[in-house]
Amino acid sequence: MTDRKHPVIRAVVFDFDGTLADTLRDIADAVNHALSKLGFPTHPVSRYRDWVGDGLARLCRRAMAGKRTDRSDDVTKWAGAYYREHSLDHTALYPGVPELLDELKRREIPLGILSNKPHDFTVRMADALCARWRFEAVEGCGDDALRKPDPRVALQICAEMGVEPSRTVFVGDTAIDIATARNAEMVSVGVTWGFRDRAELRDAGADHIIDVPGELLTISVLRLSGESST
Known about the structure:
The protein is α/β, with parallel strands linked by helices. It has helices spanning about 25-35, 55-65, 70-85, 95-105, 120-130, 150-160, 175-185, 200-205; strands at about 10-15, 20, 90-95, 110-120, 135-140, 170, 185-190, 210.
């Protein structure tokens, strides 16, 4: 049986928001735009740090703070429309992420993305920010029943990459990502540069926690794909 702490890794799957890219301001701006348009109070960008991770509809309901929940679909619609036009105004890959992706591709390690962001947004933004690297699979949320931490899409990505889940790292910044990895029997790596803190990742049971992208290459969880799998 593979040791979850020290397996031979063949592939890496990344969460998107808060892991590969800092998307917080553009997300907050979109929801605040919708709230303002419909007469609800807006919030500072920092407040959204604790609300993101479960998809746009749930984020909008949280931002409404229980007020007129019958209007949550309207808030979600307006936020989505604004975000579609402004999702890359301030969003960029985190420092160190391009260098990490360069090295992973040099090592010929297959890469995937799995986000709770709507699928069309995920694909479009990955194309815009990550075009220079080949990702074998890019999946956002197209069905609430398959939203992380449900493992089914994660397992689908592993199948597309032709790699066993136990030999795949899932890298994310929230407890939801750690739970997804656990449910899929993947190795979980939590990152502290995203939207949550170390305590959340630790309490969620992350196999590893890293503070900068390049650290993924230095921990024993990631060995060259050409090494023996025994």
